[in-house]
Amino acid sequence: MSAFKDNLLAGKVAFVAGGTSGINLGIARRYAELGAKVAVAGRNPQKAAAAAGSIGAGALGLSCDVRDYGAIRAALEQAAGTLGPLDIVISGAAGNFVAPAMGMSANGFRTVVDIDLNGTFNVFRASFDLLRRPGAALIAITAGQAINPAPLQAHVCAAKAGINQLIRVLAMEWGPSGVRVNGISPGPIAGTEGMARLTPTDEAAQALAGRIPLRRYGEIAEVAESAVFLVSESARYVTGAILDCDGGSQLGDASERRGVGLM
Ligand code: NAP
Ligand code: COA
User: Fold this and answer.
1) CA 30, CA 260: separation in Å to the nearest integer?
2) For residue 225, which phi and psi values (nearest 5 degrees)?
3) Which ligand sits closest to the CA of 222?
């Protein structure tokens, strides 16, 4: 179910970095459904082609690594050259694995910071002169680890916290050019690679769901609706914001057991 009208994004061009699977592909699909011309990018060329094929005729599937500034710049140029000036850019590429700091090499830590944080800088920095200005809307996909420290997630907590501040700084610097920069912080989303890594068993998933205020995992389509709002005219005075689409997860452990523990 959606509150948004058909063809809301007709005439818009969207580039979704990390849009070849999961949540970001769901966002790209929804944008295309609402009439936008869409390009998705990831490292694996076959996966990118399949993702574009699943979005529909005219969608572009591009291969690049967001850690490589020249490569992401070339992908953005190809998208803008083929589809037109970019109205929407999503930075959603990310990496995660579960490991304690002492089980993580310097390269392991750097790899996640490089994909998530440096990658977001690269995607946004490289897109600026290809944006339709004024009017463009950028979204970085962050996570609850940006705010809530979590064991086994040193790399992701550091990277996503950096993304939150980057969103705010770019919103300040690029607001005068008519470019809005916002974030979405999804909670645990069902059927995603991210949650397969964080809660690999049904038991772990159910335990986590029991701590979420809305008592369930979210759906990819629900994050996509937030991503439509933030790029729509309805959000034209919203910049530097991070929208939690997380069933209240950010509020903390909402299990009754925790309530009793606090009394
Ligand atoms: P996913 O399916 O693994 O998607 C990751 C995407 O990024 C893929 O398209 C992947 O394609 C691409 N990618 C990874 N490394 C890349 C690189 N170095 N350069 C370019 N592309 C790269 O992940 P997901 O679980 O849906 O998560 C999507 C986003 O939501 C992430 O930012 C994640 O942190 C955030 N998030 C997820 C959840 C959740 O419940 N899953 C919760 C909170 C936040 P290739 O592998 O082909 O490169
Ligand atoms: N525990 C500890 N260290 C790990 C690890 C784990 N489970 N997985 C990878 N690493 C380390 C590697 O050992 C390596 O360090 P080293 O060179 O000191 O040995 C470093 O991380 C980089 O690994 P590599 O496999 O070369 O990186 P990559 O660039 O090919 O892949 C990852 C990046 C590791 C993040 C990979 O999991 C990935 O591509 N993820 C994308 C999908 C994803 O994570 N989706 C969820 C998004 S929330």
Assistant:
1) 42
2) -65, -40
3) 1
| Residue range 216-234: mean pLDDT, rounded | 98
For residue 260, what pLDDT is reported? Answer: 82
Is any ligand 2 atom within 6 A of the Cβ of residue 104? yes
* Dihedral of alpha carbons 196, 202, 206, 207, sign: negative
Strands 242-245 and 180-186: parallel
Phi, psi of 25 (to 5 degrees): -65, -35
Using the atom order of ligand 2, give the atom closest to the CA of residue 99: 1
- How far, in Å, are 104, 169, 192, 230 from residue 90 at the CA level? 29, 17, 18, 11
Check whether 136 has a pLDDT greater than 80: yes
User: Ligand 2 centroid to 98 CA: how many Å?
Assistant: 10
Report the CATH number at residue 59. 3.40.50.720
d(CA 111, ligand 2 centre) in Å: 7
Mean pLDDT of all residues in 9-19 = 98
Residue-number span of the structural domain to which 66 is assigned: 13-244
